[in-house]
Amino acid sequence: MDTTPAPAAGCGPAEALLESTPDLACLFDRQHRCIYANRALLEALGRPRAEVIGRSLLELGYAPRDAAMHGSEIDQVFATARRLRGDARFHGPRGERIHDYILAPVLAADGSVQAVAATIRDVTERTAHEDVARRNERRLRAIASASSSVIYRLDPDWSRVQVLVGPGVENPPPLSRLELQAEHLHPDDHARVAHAVARAREETTVFEAEYRWLRGDGRYHWLASRVVPVRGDDGRVHEWVGATTDVEDRRRQETHQRLLLDELNHRVKNTLAVVQSIAVQTFARTGADRQAVERFHARLLALAKGHELLTASRWNGTWLRDVVETAIGPGMGHGLERFLIDGPRVWLAPRPSLALSMALHELCTNAVKYGALSAPGGTVAIRWEVHEEGGHPRRLRLEWRESGGPAVVEPQRRGFGTRLVEQGLRHDLDGEVVLAFEASGVSCHIDVPLVEASTA
After folding, report:
1. Architecture of domain 133-246 in CATH?
2. Which SMART domains did the record assign (predicted)?
C-alpha cells in the first residue's frame, strides 16, 4: 500500500495550512483508501490517525450505499481529472451530520492523477437554518395567499419596490415606486400618500395609509398598506417591508353602514320630535303643572344629546368624560369650577353610554334644584376608576358626591328620577347602585361591568 502523501500535502506550509483549517481534508488513492487526513477530519471521525490512514470508506464508517457512491465519484475524478461537488449525510460520533464536499484531482509531474483530494465542510447547522428559512418562506406565502395580501420590500430610499409574496406572484424584478404610483394611484390620493411616505421616511416609523389603486380590471380599488422599517445591527434602516390588502369590500360595507346609520339617526330625531309634540299636547289638555312639563322636556333633551354623542362615533361608543360633561349640562350655568371631574380614559359601548348619561342627568338636575348646586358654595365631585381582577370582566366604579349645599333630608318617596338612577342602571347594565341622602350631601356609587367596544 502506497501511503506516500501527494506533493500538495507533503509540503510543510501546505500541510500546516490543512492542519489548521476547520474544514475536513483528506486524500484517497485508486483503491478508495485514505492516505492523508487532517486534524479536523480525525476529530470528526473520533479516531486517531493510525485508525484512519489506509482505511477504506466502509472501514471509516460510511454506509455501504454511501461508500459505493463516493467510490464511484473518486473513480470518476481519476478518470476525467475534473473536480466534482456534492453533499451527503454521514453518521459519526456526533450523530448524523450533513457534509458538503469537493473532490479534486492531485496531479503528478507528468499530468496524471496521482490522488484525489477531498475537502469536506460540515454544513449541518447551515442546512438546518436554510430549511427553517425555506419553511418560513413557504409559510409566509401560504399566509399571504390565504389573506389575499401582497408582501413586498422597498429600498431604504423607497426608490424601488419588489413583490416578495402574493397571489399569482413569482419572483418579479424590482420596479420603480414612483412610476407605479404615477400609473396606478388615484390622482386625488397622490398628495396624501406622498405626505405619509415623507413622514415615515423622515421619522423612520411605520407607514399606514388607505388609498385607491387602479387594478387589472380597469377599476380603482381601495387598498390598505402598512410598511415597517427593517434595521440592521448598526441601527440604520436597511430596507422596508410592507403588506397591502384589498379593502374594497370593507369600504363598500362601511359606506352602506354609514347610510343606514344616517337614516336611523334621522328617524330617531323625528321620533323624539313627535314624542315631544305629543307630550306638549297631552300636558296642555290634562293641565299638568309647569315643572312636570319642564322635567319631561329636560329628560327628552338629555336622551337626544346622548344619541348625538353616539351618532358622532357611528354608534361605536363614546368616551366616558364626554358622557359626563354632556350629562351635567344643566349645571354648567353655575360654572364649571363647581365640578371636580377626575378619572382615566374609558371607552363605553352604546348601551352603558346612554344609561349613564340619563342617570348623571338626573343627579345633576336634582343637585341644581335641591342639592349642592342650589347653594353658592356647593360643589360636585365626579370620580371614576377601572378595576380589573384576574378571571373577571373589568368593572367601572363611578362616584357622584355633593358637598357644600343645604342639609339633605332623605325623601319620603322615590320619584321617577331616583328610580331611573337606581333601577335603570341595575336593569340595563347589570350593575350595582348605592344612592345615599347623607346630611352633608347626596352621594351615588355606581359599579357596572365594562363591555369592550370598538374605538374605530
Report:
1. 2-Layer Sandwich (3.30)
2. HWE_HK (SM00911), PAC (SM00086), PAS (SM00091)
The secondary element (H helix, E strand) that includes residue 431 is none
Please count the CA atoms within 13 angstroms of the CA of 122 that sit on its side-chain side.
18
Separation CA 209–CA 191 (nearest Å): 12
Task: Give the whole-angstrom CA distance, residue 50 versus residue 446.
Answer: 88
Q: What architecture is domain 7-122?
A: 2-Layer Sandwich (3.30)
Around 179, how many Cα atoms within 13 Å sit in the side-chain half-sphere?
6
Torsion of CA 290, 293, 299, 302, to 10 degrees: -80
**Whole-angstrom distance, CA of residue 75 vs CA of residue 81:** 10
CA dist 151 and 227 (Å) reads 9
| Stated pTM of the model | 0.45
Decide: 166 and 143 in contact? Cβ < 8 Å.
Answer: no
Residues 6+ apart with CB under 8 A from 19: 38, 39
d(CA 286, CA 278): 12
- For 362-389, b/e burial (b = at least 16 CB within 10 A) is bbbbbbbeebbbeeeebbbbbebeeeee
Residues linked to residue 224 through DSSP beta bridges, in sequence order = 210, 245
Residues 317-449, CATH architecture: 2-Layer Sandwich (3.30)
End-to-end CA distance of the chain: 84
Q: Which three cell numbers stand for residue 356?
A: 349613564
| Structure confidence by residue, pLDDT tens digits, 166-208 | 766 666 788 999 999 999 999 999 999 999 999 999 999 999 9
Which is it for the CA torsion 401, 407, 410, 416, positive or negative?
Answer: negative
User: Higher confidence at residue 104 or residue 423?
Assistant: 104
What does the pLDDT look like over 420-435, one tens digit per residue? 777 777 777 888 889 8
Say how far apart CA 307 and CA 323 lie, in whole Å: 11
If one compares 41 and 9, the residue with the highest pLDDT of the two is 41
- β-pair type (95-107, 113-122): antiparallel
Contacts for 360 with CB less than 8 Å, ≥ 6 apart: 323, 324, 327, 328, 382, 400
Q: Please check whether the two domains, 133-246 and 317-449, share a CATH topology.
A: no
Lowest mean pLDDT among 60-69, 288-297, 438-447: 288-297
